[in-house]
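thought: fold this chain, then report.
action: predict
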Amino acid sequence: MRKLMRRLGSAVWSPGRIYLVGGSSAVLVDWRETTVDVGLKLDPEPAGTFEAIAWAKETLNINVELAAPDDFIPELPGWRGRSPFIDRYGRVDYHHY
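observation:
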């Protein structure tokens, strides 16, 4: 996860936030050893993210899904403020969703 976070953070062209979703977050905090795919939510989306994700998917041989719970159910008010900060890589702040 950290390798992906570093690569995306160094490849984007503008600041933004990426929220780790589901298994991605669980792997990062050692609740699980693996996940089938890396779930991400971009908000606000850093410029160049889609190109960086395509490059990372190829070089790291991983599956990245742009999906979050609020794609399926109504978002909870104030969720951004309750999303714990993980780290900053390059221009990207990472949070747990």
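thought: worth noting. Residues 19 and 41 are 5 Å apart (CA to CA).
final: tokens above.
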